[in-house]
Amino acid sequence: MSGPFGSSNFFIGGAKVPITFEYTANYSEAAQNTTEVTDSGAALGTAAANRQILVAASSGRASGSGTSLITGVTVAGVTATELAQTNRTGGNPYRACSAIYIATVPTGTTGDVVVTWSAGQYDIVIYTIAIYGAASTAFDTGTAQGQASGLVLSDTVNIPANGFAIAVVGGSSGSLSNYTWVGLTEGSGTGAEVQAGSTRVGVAADTDMSAETGRTIQSTATGTQNDATWAAVSLEQA
Hints:
Blueprint lengths: L19 E10 L4 E10 L7 E12 L7 E6 L2 E2 L1 E7 L9 E8 L5 E23 L7 E10 L2 E8 L3 E10 L5 E5 L2 E2 L7 E3 L2 E11 L2 E11 L1 E12 L3
Antiparallel strand pairs: 1-8, 2-8, 3-7, 3-8, 4-5, 4-8, 6-7, 9-17, 10-16, 11-15, 11-17, 12-16, 13-15, 14-15
């Protein structure tokens, strides 16, 4: 990745700008029945006219029975758009959810990231990712959910030529130690796995991918993963 101003990002013979990305921040909170969490002054990466911010969020469980979904995300005051989301609809009476949102934020290097849920949540992780040269709508999406020891969550996602894809997974259990990925590269630095209370969350992404129909993207849990949710999205060049 050469960044938004690297030589690989200039137009060459009218070609589209390659998509680059950077994990810029993560935030975790062993929250107690909250419906809103703010990552104050989150790093947003280098400002650029073609910068957007991806927010990948997951919570391990919700308070009480019934469903819970992320209902809104803002980045530096800009309303983000949902790209993909899933929530837990079986298993324990606690309802987890995972989602990926995108906002166009060309200026500034820091800003508050605010995530709102429809019902009280516990054990929350939020990743902030700067992405350059990507479309603002999903090319394709995937979702999965479940509960098991060694749980495998996966879906097939169509990838555009020179495209980008990202997935987020979260689940609660004291015995869940890590995830392994197929189809995407696990995040590092501020994109590494995060533990929040009893919930462990991971993210994986790649760019400059070859066109592919039905690419399998998969996470496998080491240990027991309860109330697990998983969301993925692919983006084409802008």
